[in-house]
Amino acid sequence: MKLPARMVVVLTGVSLLAAAFLAGVNLLTRERIATNKQKEIEAAISLVIPGARSSRKVYEERGFSVYAGSDESGNLLGWAVESVTGGFQDNIIFLVGADAELSRIRRLYILEQKETPGLGAKITDEKTFLQFWEGKDMNLPLALRKPPAGKEDLGPAEVNTITGATISSEAVLSGVTLSLDRLKKLRSEGRLEGEGSHAR
Amino acid sequence: MPDKTLGQEFVKGLWAENPVSRQLLGMCSTLAVTNAVVNGLAMGLAVAFVLILSSLFVSLIRKIIPNQVRIASYIVIIASFVTIADRFMAAYFPPLSKALGPYVPLIVVNCIILGRAEAFASRNSAGRSLIDALGMSLGYTIALVILSAIRELLGSGTLLGRPVLGAWFEPWVIMLLPPGAFLTLGILIAAAFAIERKARRRRSA
Fold first, then answer.
1. How many angstroms separate the CA of residue B177 from the nearest CA in chain A?
2. Strand locations in chain B, DSSP E?
3. Is A79 in contact with A69 (CB distance < 8 Å)?
4. Residue B67: closest CA among chain A residues belongs to which residue?
5. What does each C-alpha distance from A95 to A138, A139, B205 come to in angstroms?
6. Are strands A158-160 and A143-145 parallel, antiparallel or unpaired?
7. Do B177 and A3 touch (CB under 8 A)?
8. Over 80: is that where the pLDDT of B31 sits?
């Protein structure tokens, strides 16, 4: 075979083989990867709405989803919002839980972040950051306390800033504020009701 | 042309031609993922998987690949194995896949793999290439584990996520940040060169 023909044949052959192989691998792993993502969300929802046994998506738009969490007998325990905010390095994807009446934050959980390890990455840390969000009043504007104070010294809508990571703390605060406002608006417009018809 | 025994072919990757401390290849992943031992180990194993299989494949088809398209063929082979490793991790070890983030796909451009394909596997038998790749992977993994152990210990006071230093220890956050990676790597490479020089002097004396 002439050289140019051989080059084309070999390279095409190698690429075709690779493509076939990868298609197979994708078939084998695709379902598992999707299940993993689903499981992660479900686990996170039961974290941010303590006691929730089942959840279903009741609203979705780009970068903003609302889940309703209920106990065993189907009573609504609260709402969980999955949303995204611009962090210091990259997007921070978080999940925030609110009680059924939308009066208090239940818990906050960070699903994905690429903040600076040791500084901004502390937004995933229970002790330095997440614990302060629990029970905050949703009728007051959320605010950051800087420098951080003891849990009992914080106001009813005040959370601690992470020392050395003001930008990351502010990013989470503004993301949560926006999401909760949107959640309240959706609810007052009645767009979260009729939940049954949106079951996934 | 083989002037080394198979044993020597394996051992050279551990020290004399260690990809990290002697060849200074694959620095990007080396610096970026070594802030915890788990990540360093996972990266080492992912690179090992890709390096061993790509070396084997490149060596097997080395005689039918025309010289002009060899690099393109190697990259296709390497990229395929990287994608397999990436999907496999996402399916079976989601937390690791998350921690390593974009660095798994970036194994494609890790110079160790293309370097071994071009410098070794394309000129040696499959068996010999396999041994070479095993040695290089082990050398790379060991280097990453040492680097990440130092950084995790000083940066978080933990090893493999378990606290080993008492409450008195104030973590050196800088060790987890990029400067900590450069500092540690620099000291490790200097130490490796110093030890090598001493050994050489003793041998010639």
1. 6
2. 158-159, 162-163
3. yes
4. A7
5. 16, 19, 66
6. parallel
7. no
8. yes
